[in-house]
Amino acid sequence: MTSPIIEDAPGRDDSRERLARLESVAGQLLDRCRAAGASQAEVSCSEDRGLSVNVRMGEVESVESTRDRGIAVTVYFGGRKGSASTADLRPESLEATVEQACAIARHTGDDPAAGLAEAALMARAIREFDTWHPWDLDAQEAVSLALAAEQAGRDADARITNSDGASVATSASLSVYANSHGFVGAERGSHHSLSCALIAGRGEGMQRDGWYTYALAAGDLEPAAAVGRHAARRTLARLDPAPIATGRYPVLFSAETARSLVGHLLGAVSGGALYRGASFLVGAAGQRIFPDWFAIHERPFLMRGLRSAAFDAEGVATREAPLVEAGVLRRYVLGSYSARRLGLETTANAGGVHNLEVAANAGGLDDMLRGMGRGLLVTGLMGQGVNTVTGDYSRGASGFWVEDGQVVHPVDGITVAGNLRDVFAAVEAVGSDVDPRSHIRTGSILVGGMTVAGSR
User: pTM above the 0.90 mark?
Assistant: First the structure.
């Protein structure tokens, strides 16, 4: 058998040919698994290509071109499971990979929850969502973009005294998932980013901040100079922070930090945490945990969505569905294994969620600030002080103190704390200022009260 990977032809998109060859390899591996006596089997094949460059102070620091490929084989002998992987596509290596997976399965314990997702749940209509936009970018062009971003930021103001660098990255990924139910699904995706981080001030008064743009299509990226200037504005705004007193205040999480609150919710309602009993939301499905106007919906079919997909990591057909509706947690986030452990059905979330949208009930950030009146605007979070078992939340933060709906001065070195059950229940507003750089699409989130440990 010849190698299933063929090289790019100049000026031609040969991704479909390469996907077809990956599908062929997957089919041959499934045949080998059946011949070895496996009752069920699944195969994942992937190919990734990318370029990344980093510059600092007008000099190139690194240029990295990547080309990765991999094959993962999982076999089931009843409830016994074995997995093995390889990046070597020679026939003898593929054969050895199947043999290794089978050997592992024969030495593992029987797990009644193990196995493929049910055949009836497999996706029948495989379609694309405009996620394939490879960027024909060479290293010199990438370096030029990174340098332009950094220079624009450094030129923006004399108080920008140093740079933490700028970077450009692009990648294109092909993947095939197939299993012994007869399901075969192929996906193509591209990802591009440009970022810049700057330093303002001198000595102990130095502050660092930055900005980045991220998209599936290069044409959707912000211009390099705009990224640099935005990084400069954010960095300059942090200069001369003033202390605030410790107390309980309203806290407005900016859009880029607000999505972390949704991320903590996802961690608590994911199947692995639930069946291990390691979540403060065990048994919470059907309970109101947010105000009655609050809603989060999963939208897997958005065109050019960052996590759009017709099927999940097990081939199960994805579907639009509420996660939270009228403040009530409608379901958990499950793959087939965790669903069986919990006595439930998969929610087509093996591998994660697909484009969550948090419904807004307020205007943009300025409107949110006026609505808050007095309190803390959080624009940066640090640390991992979140206990998923208890819901206790305590993270380092930076941002701005707000009086009469207006930013008064920057603050840093503070901590915001509470319990996530209380935080979720105290959400007062969600803004329309959605940050498009994440598959968790949310605007700013205003929490009515949290403990803020200030510096005085």
Answer: yes
